[in-house]
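# step 3/5: fold
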Amino acid sequence: MSDGRIFREAWIAGVNKHYPGEPKPGYITPWDETPEWERQAAAAVCGQVRDFIGVSGGHAARLTREQKGRFVAICWTAQMFRHFEEPKPGYVADWADLPAWQRETDADIFEHIEQTR
């Protein structure tokens, strides 16, 4: 399975688990219907998490759940600036400004990538 698909499936699982109420359709769009920019961003962030885990010698597992989520969020923010001249504010929001469901989902993504190494 590709890095982008691993990321996207973890995102969808997290949204379904943590989002309060019915998620927006775009939040749970299947991989095959995901826009190309988003596929590229998902693959890049998954690769960054894998690299981070690798260069830590596996010790990234000792990070707190929040630290793991923050790492995913900052990597995603960098991708949004890469793909959009003026990204939507929600795409580049600081960790403290993200909704709780999104912070939990980002942490889930890191942990899922850890498990798929």
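# step 4/5: annotate
The chain has four helices and no strands.
# step 5/5: archive (pending)
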